[in-house]
Design goal:
Blueprint: E1 6-8, E2 14-16, E3 37-42, E4 51-55, E5 63-72, E6 79-86, E7 93-99, E8 110-119, E9 127-131, E10 141-149
Antiparallel strand pairs: 1-2, 3-10, 4-9, 5-8, 5-10, 6-7, 6-9
Amino acid sequence: MTNQVSWTDDLGGLYNANAVTPLPVTMPASGIPAGATPLVSASGNVANASAVATLAGAAGKTTYISGFEITGGGATAAALVSATVAGLLGGTATYTYGAVTGAAAVNAPLVVVFTPPLPASAVNTAIVVTLPALGAGNTNAAVVAHGYRV
């Protein structure tokens, strides 16, 4: 009988010393590449104004967006707006977001995760997530974007 040695890594991969070993994982458990700088940007709360979150570019580095969240309250009248993610390789991405009727009402959040993260269109280029104003009577809207720079 042969003794078998096996173990589980931090990402849940099971390895067996007597079997073919898979290639090593190049992404750490944090979800960003080694040496990358994590980025988070938030618009803060805005009332019937554009909410903007910017992942800034840096000289000699490429910015990546791994996702964003949009939250907000309703407005005097229901409305649909086009939220955008600009600065992406391949062009601007557009998402429809709705404000419900009633300033004290809550809109459903829009949560977008990019797997894999999306790069900026060029080195030293910012990625900007913008939610337009939700309309008269709106008192709360916010955008948060997250990613990294490498």
